Amino acid sequence: MNSIEQVEHDLSSFLQTWSFPDIVEKRADERMTREDMNHRLVRRIHGDALFRREFLAHPRFVFAIAVEQSLGIDKYAFVKNIERVEVLQETSRQLYLVLPACHRGCRREEVCEAPAEAVAGSCHVCGITFPRAAESSCSEQRPSSGTGAVSRREIEEQMTKRAGFDASFREALLTRPAEAYPAFARELCGGHVPQYLETVEDIRVLEEDVDEIYFRLPIRA
User: Fold this and answer.
1) Cβ-Cβ contacts under 8 Å for 6 (sequence gap 6 or more)
2) Could you tell me if 186 and 78 are in contact, meaning their C-beta atoms sit under 8 angstroms apart?
3) In this predicted structure, what is the pLDDT of residue 171?
4) Taken in order 146, 152, 153, 159, is the CA torsion positive or negative?
5) pTM
6) Are strands 121-122 and 202-207 parallel, antiparallel or unpaired?
7) Which of 1, 23, 32, 171 is the most exposed place for a label (fewest CB within 10 A)?
C-alpha cells in the first residue's frame, strides 16, 4: 500500500467512528470562505469538549471533513494534497497570524497566486482576495472610525489581504511581526492599540506551504 492509499484507508477508518455529522452548520444557500469555516470551527471547539478532543487528536482528518462541508472540496482529495494540519493554540500573551497559501482546491480552474497583475477575485480555499495591481494600495484599508472599535478579524483580514499583494509588507510581517502587526492594527484603529493586543507579548506570523495548513485556535472570548 502506497502513502496515498494508506492515508485514504486511515481516513476511511476514522470516518467509521466519527460522530459529528454537521460541524460547520452551513446553510444550503450559503457560500463560505476558509475564514468563515475557521470561525465556525473555533466556535464549535470552544462549545463542545468532546469535539475539541477529537479535533486536537486528529486535526488533519477533522479539517478535511470541515473543508468538504463548507467549501465543497472532497475530503479524500484534501488529505491527498495536505500532509499536515498543525493547531496553534493561543494564549492571552501570545497570538498567531497565518498567511495562507492556495491549496489547489479552488473551484476556479486557474491556479491562485498573488502576483501584482492578479485579477480581482478570491481563492475559495484560502479566502484571500487578490486585487488588481492598480487597486493594490494602502488606501484599500478600512477607514478608521477613530474609536479603536475595529475587530481582530477585520484587522487581520485587511492585513492578510495586503500581504497577498505587497511583498515588502509580507516580509515585514514574517521577519518583524512584533513591529509590523501592531503598527498596522493601530493605523486601522485611528492610532489606538486594539484591546485584544493589550496583554500580548509575543506575536508569531507563519506562512503556509501548499502541503500544510496552520489552524489558529484563539482563547475563548
Assistant:
1) none
2) no
3) 96
4) positive
5) 0.79
6) unpaired
7) 1
Q: Per-residue pLDDT tens for 20-39? A: 999 999 999 998 888 889 99
Task: Label residue 51 exposed, middle or buried (CB < 10 Å: 0-12, 13-18, 19+).
Answer: middle
Whole-number Å distance between alpha carbons of 2 and 7: 9
Question: Residue 119: is its pLDDT beyond 70?
Answer: no
Whole-angstrom Cα distance, residue 196 to residue 95? 10
- 32 burial (CB, 10 Å; 0-12 / 13-18 / 19+) is buried
Residue-wise pLDDT tens digits, 58-89: 999 999 999 999 988 899 999 998 999 999 99
Q: And the C-alpha cell for 146?
A: 477613530
Q: Which grid cell sits at 56?
A: 486536537
In the block, residue with C-alpha cell 478535511? 64
The DSSP-derived string for the chain is --HHHHHHHHHHHHHHT---S-SS---TT----HHHHHHHHHHHHHH-HHHHHHHHHSHHHHHHHHHHHHH---HHHHHHH--EEEEEE--SSEEEEEE----S--SSSSPP---TTPPSEE-TTT--EE--GGG-SGGGSPPP-SSS---HHHHHHHHHHHHHH-HHHHHHHHH-HHHHHHHHHHHHTTTPPPGGGTT--EEEEEE--TTEEEEEEPPP-
Alpha carbons 154 and 113: distance in angstroms, whole number: 22
Distance CA 133, CA 86 (A): 33
